[in-house]
Hints:
This protein is an all-alpha fold. It has a domain at 18-84. Helices cover 64% and strands 0% of the residues. It has 6 helices and no strands. Helix 2 (44-51) runs parallel beside helix 4 (73-84) and helix 3 (57-70) runs antiparallel to helix 4. The chain is rod-shaped, with a radius of gyration of 36 Å. The protein starts with 17 loop residues before the first helix and ends in a 19-residue tail after the last helix.
Amino acid sequence: MTPHHLPFYITKPGETDWLMIVMGIFLILVILGVGNLYLHLHSLPERMAHKSQKLQFEIVAVLGLVALFTHIHAFWIAALLLAMIDLPDFGTPLRSISDSVERIAASSEGSDANEPAHGKAAQTTAVAEKVEPGVPKLPHGPKQEVKSHA
């Protein structure tokens, strides 16, 4: 009952359907490719924050994961915006200030032990005039030592 001339996509009984095999492989490759593209696009805010060494990198990463698992796109948009914004770095200048104050304190403690008493007052006055020229001078009294409990 079958016609003698069948199209190539119709297989004869008992033969392998090559078109179905090729389309199955193609479907698997397309699904993997689209999934890879989706995950690559989804991790865009995290990669942007990581490249520019942002302080808020962890927050961007968490927002990206929340958006991935909940499918709420507002989290992804928030992560993208947060990755694009440069938050000011307050830690580095404050750390630099504290390091400088520690160095000044260490250098003044080391120089106090080697100088005579009258030389310390003159040096302290000279340093105060160099650092803060408009500030009135305070009388220098005896220095009290602080004991550490270490």
